Amino acid sequence: MTQARILVCGPDSYFVDDVATTCAGCAAAIVHRPHKPPDVVLLCPACAGALLAANVAAGEPVPTIAVTPETAREVEAFEAFTNPKGGSH
Ligand SMILES: [Zn+2]
Fold first, then answer.
1. CA-to-CA distance for 67 and 75, rounded, in angstroms?
2. Which domain holds residue 34?
3. What is the pLDDT along the chain (89 residues), one digit of tens a residue?
4. How far is the CA of 77 from the centre of ligand 1 (A)?
5. Which of 1, 26, 68, 80 keeps 20 to 30 A from 89, CA to CA?
6. In a domain, 61, yes or no
């Protein structure tokens, strides 16, 4: 079986242009960014965790988890906004 790239998407929306969709595993409501890679399987955190655990237990390679540079910049900006002191915990 071809290894799919997965994108872990949460149910909470943080940006006005988030795109609502459903998890490919359980059909839970999730959101993704409009600039997500085109060739990824969208999974909620629970399904992604279950898939990774199953892969590890079976000794199979785990899927690549996709994070685009733009997503990384957004996460960095969001973290700086919500935790301006730089994570002293
Ligand atoms: Zn799911």
1. 10
2. 5-82
3. 456 788 999 999 989 999 999 999 999 999 999 989 888 999 999 999 999 899 999 999 888 777 778 878 887 887 888 888 765 55
4. 27
5. 68
6. yes
**pLDDT attached to residue 14:** 86
CA 51–ligand 1 middle distance (angstroms):
10
What are the respective helix, strand and coil percentages of the chain, to the nearest 5? 30, 20, 50
Q: Ligand 1 center to residue 41 CA distance, Å?
A: 11
Q: How far is the CA of 53 from the centre of ligand 1 (A)?
A: 14
The full length of the chain comes to 89
Q: 66 in a domain, yes or no?
A: yes
Whole-angstrom Cα distance, residue 46 to residue 33? 19
Question: Does any domain span residue 33?
Answer: yes
How many structural domains is the chain composed of?
Answer: 1
| Angstrom distance (rounded) from CA 18 to CA 15 | 5
pTM over the 0.85 mark: no
